Amino acid sequence: NSPDAIIIGSLAQALLRELSEESVCVDHLSNVYHEFSALKEQITPWLNDKPTTDKLQTVKSKLKTLKSKLRHKLADKMDAEENQDTAELEEIATDLEDIRTKIHKALIEEDKLMSELSQLASAHFPELLNSESDTGFGTYLTYKGLVKQSYAPDNYTLTSVGSR
Question: From what superkingdom does this record's organism come (predicted)?
């Protein structure tokens, strides 16, 4: 209990307190380092290449063309039904299924591209949300991909279920 022991004890407590504060600071810096390293890994592929909506626009124009073909085939089907031409109806039914299959494949591709680009837009490239063409990112992000603008009932083969 000498005065030297008291000084050494208080000095040891002060050193432990300082070391504890330094340890907290080092932990914080380590967390910040890991966060920035992860961010760097995410951004690195895009430093020289910016994401483009060209593929998405191509898929959208392909969908527009396919939907136009579908409308024309549906009109042909109505004409064939009026004329009661069964051979032509069978051919049109086959064509309609082919067109609808192509539409569904294009819709899946569009959804995949929308998902990828929406994630990039919300994470790193907000300018994609404000592009000159209506890409639909706003709706996609608002509804978390649940609302799909390109989907329409005509894209499906509709049949009645049950008797009335």
Answer: Eukaryota
